[in-house]
Design brief:
Elements: E1 10-13, E2 19-21, H1 22-39, E3 48-52, H2 57-73, E4 77-84, H3 91-104, E5 109-113, H4 114-118, H5 122-127, H6 133-151, E6 156-158, H7 163-175, H8 179-182, E7 199-201, H9 209-218, H10 235-249, H11 253-272, E8 279-280, E9 287-288, H12 294-305
Parallel strand pairs: 3-4, 3-6, 4-5, 6-7
Antiparallel strand pairs: 1-2, 8-9
Helix pairs in contact: 1-9, 2-9, 7-10, 7-11
The structure holds iron/sulfur cluster and zinc ion (ZN).
Zinc ion binds next to helix 12.
Length: 307
């Protein structure tokens, strides 16, 4: 069967069984992302958007499309922000992609590293602890992105989370009974109205990982897949496998998880909106539900291990 819009050879079959050729897939993809930005009001006039880039397919697709939209509308600014965790053989490679892309497109790239912020690389921290890589890396990365985005004066932080990532987060929170944390998900954060948190937006929210990968390859944004060596050794990795198996057997599962979630999200936000302000970490000043934030606690444990 040819592409539904022309007679060209199809490269992608959508969930509704429609087939699209290269050119019409690119059109479909861009339209859906720009509609997500418009429908969920992700970007406003004069926004100074920081784009979190790792140099992988999701973040480069995001940066490419936001840059395209910026050039077209001239209504907002974009900047790139990257975190170098210090994962040899992985992050060094993807950061090269990010640097090259930003250079070629005249986008200012700000890079912050665990070594500068916390004293060492993730690789070295992991040598002295039994803590799982992602349990340490997740809070560290969120901490740097939140703190530095504020320092750089961004009004929003855009991340490359796609439909697969979001369906995993929803299921993880559900299985662990962390429903309150799910209230913070969605295409734009909104439950916590606290100036100390940078507003996060996810323009690729409704695009599947496969669609993003195909788009990134078609646009030559990446030439090979790079995956963090720790990504499979995690709870999320197991949830990802489970959802992939379900998707293979029951196509549309991930889409259903996310769209169903979007229906209940307003109720979750209403239920979990809190008037009790968060404390500020006594050590670093970042918002925290305890006296000392999770990042400072982990740094302290790591320091003591090295004594
Ligand atoms: Fe960090 Fe885990 Fe992501 Fe690797 S998979 S970059 S260790 S959070
Ligand atoms: Zn702290």
């Amino acid at each position: 069967m040819p592409c539904k819009n022309c007679l060209e050879k199809p490269i992608m079959k959508l969930l509704n069984n429609e087939q699209l050729c290269k050119q019409h897939f690119v059109k479909y993809f861009e339209k859906k992302v720009f509609n997500t930005i418009r429908n969920y009001k992700l970007i406003n006039k004069n926004d100074k958007v920081g784009v979190a880039v790792s140099g992988g397919k999701d973040s480069l697709t995001l940066l490419y499309l936001l840059n395209k939209l910026k050039e077209k509308t001239r209504k907002f600014e974009i900047y790139a922000i990257a975190v170098d965790e210090g994962i040899e053989g992985y992050r060094d490679k993807t950061l090269e992609n990010a640097k090259k892309f930003c250079n070629e497109n005249n986008i200012k790239l700000n890079i912050f590293s665990y070594k500068d912020e916390f004293g060492d690389t993730l690789d070295n921290f992991l040598k002295n602890t039994k803590m799982k890589a992602c349990s340490m890396c997740g809070p560290f990365r969120r901490y740097i992105l939140n703190k530095k985005s504020k320092e750089l004066g961004f009004t929003k932080l855009a991340t490359g989370h796609n439909l697969d990532d979001e369906s995993q987060s929803i299921m993880m929170n559900y299985i662990r009974a962390n429903i309150e944390i799910s209230a913070r998900l969605g295409p734009i954060t909104g439950v916590l109205k606290d100036q100390r948190f940078i507003k996060r937006i996810k323009p690729l929210y409704l695009m599947s990982e496969k669609e993003v990968a195909i788009y990134a390859f078609l646009k030559n944004l990446i030439t090979e897949f790079n995956e963090c060596p720790h990504s499979l050794d995690s709870y999320r990795g197991d949830i990802r496998d489970m959802l992939n198996n379900f998707e293979a057997k029951y196509p549309g599962t991930k889409n259903a998880v996310v769209t169903g979630f979007l229906n209940i999200l307003p109720m979750l936000r209403e239920n979990y909106k809190s008037n009790i302000p968060l404390k500020s970490c006594k050590n670093c000043g970042e918002p925290s539900s305890n006296e000392i934030c999770q990042t400072c606690k982990i740094v302290e444990i790591l320091k003591n291990k090295n004594k």
